[in-house]
C-alpha cells in the first residue's frame, strides 16, 4: 500500500561479528517521504542497521536497495552518500568558530570542491538555499553568531540544517533529543515533522514519548530482526514488545 514506492528496501540482511548475529534475516521497507522510528533494546542491531544502509558495514548476505534500482551493496560509503543518503550522529559536530550561516555554507560545499577557492562568490541561488534552511531550522535570528554560542539543542538543529544543505533524499538521525530540554524536544519534533514528505527520515530513538509524537510507523528491532511494526499504540501493546523491554 505504498504511496510513492520504496526509497529503501532491505531484504534478508545478515551481519555477523565473530559469529554473533548483529542483524539476523532483517527485512525493512521504507516508503519515500516517510518518517520512521526505529526502537529496540540495547544490542538490538539499530546501529548496525544504520551502518549497513550507509555502507560502513557490508552484510554477509541479503539485499539493500535505494529506490527501485540502485543496489547499495555495490557502492562504497562515499558513493552511497552521493546518492543522497546522509547520517547525523548523536553528538553535534558544528564548527564553533564559524557563524551559523558559515556552517551552512560550508556544508553546501562539503561534497564538492568549490569551497576553498579564492574567487568563490555565493550566488543568489545559494544564498536563498541557506536562508531557506535557516528558516526551516528556526535559526535565522542567530545566523551571524558563532555556532559556539548556541545551546546544545540549537547545535543539533544546525547540524540537521547542515545535512539539509546537501539536499538529502534519506536522512538517518541517531538519538536527536539526547540531552535536550523539554522545550527543545518539542521543537525538534516540529522540525522533523516539517521535513517528512520532502525527505525520507529514519530516526533511532529511545524516548518513547518523543517517538509517539513524531512517528506514524515504528519498527521494533530485537536480536537483529524486526520484531514488529506498527503505530506506537500497536507496538506498545504488543506482548512481545513488552516482554523484550521488561527483559532488558
Ligand atoms: P543497538 O544500536 O541496537 O544498541 P548495535 O547494532 O550497536 O545495537 O549492536 C548489535 C550487536 O552487535 C551488539 O551485541 C554489539 O555488541 C554487536 N556489535 C556491533 N558492532 C560490532 C562490531 N564492530 N564488532 C563486534 N560486535 C559488534
Average pLDDT:
92
Structural classification:
alpha/beta
What is the CATH class designation?
A: Alpha Beta
The second-level CATH architecture is 3-Layer(aba) Sandwich
Query: How many helix segments?
Result: 9
Instruction: Output the helix-strand order.
Output: EEEHEEHEHHHEHEHEEHH
A few lines on this structure:
Residues 8-248 form the ABC transporter domain. Keywords: ATP-binding, Nucleotide-binding, Transport. With 248 residues, the chain is an alpha/beta fold.
Keywords:
248 residues, alpha/beta, Rossmann fold, 10 strands, 34% helix, binds adenosine-5'-diphosphate, Urea ABC transporter ATP-binding protein UrtD, ATP hydrolysis activity, nucleotide-binding
Amino acid at each position: 500500500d505504498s504511496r510513492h514506492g520504496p526509497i529503501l528496501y532491505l531484504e534478508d540482511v545478515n551481519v555477523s561479528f565473530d559469529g554473533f548475529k548483529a542483524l539476523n534475516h532483517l527485512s525493512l521497507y521504507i516508503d519515500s517521504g516517510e518518517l520512521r522510528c526505529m526502537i529496540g533494546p540495547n544490542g538490538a542491531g539499530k546501529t548496525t542497521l544504520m551502518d549497513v544502509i550507509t555502507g560502513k558495514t557490508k552484510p554477509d548476505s541479503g539485499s539493500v536497495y535505494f529506490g527501485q534500482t540502485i543496489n547499495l551493496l555495490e557502492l562504497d560509503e562515499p558513493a552511497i552518500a552521493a546518492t543522497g543518503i546522509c547520517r547525523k550522529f548523536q553528538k553535534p559536530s558544528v564548527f564553533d568558530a564559524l557563524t551559523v550561516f558559515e556552517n551552512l555554507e560550508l556544508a553546501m560545499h562539503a561534497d564538492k570542491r568549490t569551497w576553498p577557492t579564492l574567487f568563490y562568490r555565493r550566488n543568489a541561488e545559494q544564498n536563498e538555499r541557506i536562508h531557506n534552511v535557516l528558516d526551516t531550522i528556526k535559526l535565522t535570528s542567530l545566523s551571524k553568531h558563532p555556532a559556539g554560542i548556541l545551546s546544545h539543542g540549537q547545535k543539533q538543529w544546525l547540524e540537521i540544517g547542515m545535512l539539509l544543505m546537501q539536499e538529502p533524499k534519506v536522512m538517518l538521525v541517531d538519538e536527536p533529543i539526547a540531552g535536550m530540554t523539554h522545550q527543545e524536544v518539542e521543537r525538534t519534533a516540529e522540525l522533523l515533522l516539517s521535513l517528512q514528505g520532502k525527505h525520507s527520515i529514519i530516526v533511532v530513538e529511545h524516548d518513547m514519548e518523543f517517538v509517539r509524537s513524531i512517528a506514524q510507523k515504528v519498527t521494533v528491532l530485537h536480536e537483529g530482526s524486526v520484531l514488529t511494526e506498527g503505530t506506537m499504540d500497536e507496538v506498545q501493546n504488543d506482548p512481545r514488545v513488552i516482554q523484550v523491554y521488561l527483559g532488558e
